[in-house]
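This is your field. Please look over both lines of this record.
***
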Amino acid sequence: MSMVRYRPDVDGLRAIAILVVVAYHVGAPGVTGGFTGVDVFFVLSGFLITGILWDELQQSNRISWRTFYARRARRLLPALAFTVLLTLGLGVLLLPAVPDLRWLAQSTVAVAGFGSNMLFWRQTAGYFGVAAESLPLLHTWSLAVEEQFYLVWPLVLLGVWRLRRRGGRFATVATVVVAVITAGSFGLASLMSDRSGAFYLMPTRLWELAAGALVVLVGRRIGEWVRVRPLVLATLGLVLMLVPMVVAPTPRWFPGLGALPSVVGTVLLLIAGQLQPANRVSRSLSARPLVFIGQRSYSWYLLHWPLLVLVRVVTLTDSLVRDLGIAALAFAMAHLLHRWLEHPWRTGRSRFTRTTTRSLLSGGVLLGITVACGAMVLRKPTAFSFVDVTPSQAAALEENRRPWDVCPALPTGGERTVDCSFDPEASTRLVLVGDSHAFGLIPAMRQAAQQLGWGLDVMWDPGCPFVVDYRPPSGDRGFDSACVRENKADAAYLAAHASQIGAVVTTSRASTFIGDGASEVARQVWTQALAGTLSTITGAGTRVVLLHDVPHFKKPVAQCAIRKSARSCAVDASDARSARQPVFDAEQAAVAQTNGKVLTWDPFDVLCDATR
């Protein structure tokens, strides 16, 4: 039985996946886990690609690489090249040259090179970080994962196919090999300390694609092994797939255990549809409206995010109604793109893709044009950008958006201590430790260290305040295991190098953990843990400065200053002080327990006046 026969329920699954992804991106209520729609796409891709390769191996005992990659080029490249070039063109009109347009141009080249996931892994502090939200091509990370999968997966299947000549049935050998790969990748995704890498990289996403492949490789034997009614399987699968979409998995468990329900649910739906296509759930997924959306899901996925990001960056406002309108516009564009470009190229009706050779050449030309355009803008973004900024504004944007340039080594979330050092020849060190808000102080701390004749060491981890042994009560937000390990390692480093350290400066966005919604018990536990952390450092004879956090602004300040005015970014001073009061009180109480050995500084005294 062919595994690549058309299944309308697969298009229905695509429709659900793209609907929740788009809803999540526009900020619609009730879909806090909409990003798990991408996990559904991964399973479907593994299922479909393995089905194509399985059929070819069954029929010809070989894989035609030219045919396979020509098919991938016809399917993926026309809509991708159109979207990337359109985004780059809009970026030229709407983005300042440095760093935004330069980042976009760099992303353009990376997309054409099938490596945007690695670029975003290195450039951002995680998919869920603030900086990532302003990258117009961020969503292409998932396409890069699939494209990298296409490079290795045919080799895997071809290798296990040839093992059958040494005995055993191919399906059994292939199933065992793929099951081992799936388990290994899942373990890596669950245990990898670099959670940003676990999110973006192909080896930690491979298990999701391989799960779809297992449905193909088990094939007809599913009916022999599975004694549960297909409708029961489909219903269970639908529940498992939908629940994480509305109840977001904890980021620290994603994409390992957090993605497991989505993956298992999609697999069960595929199995149920294979065993009994007429079961009620699969039949519902095959409804014409869902199939219509699913067939345009690829183009919609490509188009919606750049349009959302560019409008948000330019207007610096949030509007659910506006963003829903943008999503609807993106779908209308996706329909036209599907009809006039994507479908003709994919089916070979276009004169550019009527043969395998033409498909490969056309795909190469599209990639070449994309790389060339991206490289031209990347070489001199100031010559292309229509947005004028002053040198000081450009420097502020650069400092605000480019962790890799400011701190040469992004944190791994593991047990490494010093993430980057400045002036390493200096014998006395100023140490800056904390989360991303501490990271934002690097330029100021470098200047302070240079004035003292010291060097600067930075130990930071996004979302991880430097508070050792913080164990909140059940129901309050705590640190993930990687943060706990890193804090202990940082404390041990500070103790071991106390004689070389002139001072330690720490700050964090503690409101994430003990701000609004946190219990009073959690704040008390935080106070004691912070006091213990500070006392341990001062007990070794090291001076400590605790900086209270900066006001929380509703708009990106650097962007706001360019697009509007610095004054328009301001927030009411009394509201800002009231919002941070629980955190301020907890930090002051912790400092009081150190008997005056810790200095504090409040940026509100500099950044705020009586009213703003």
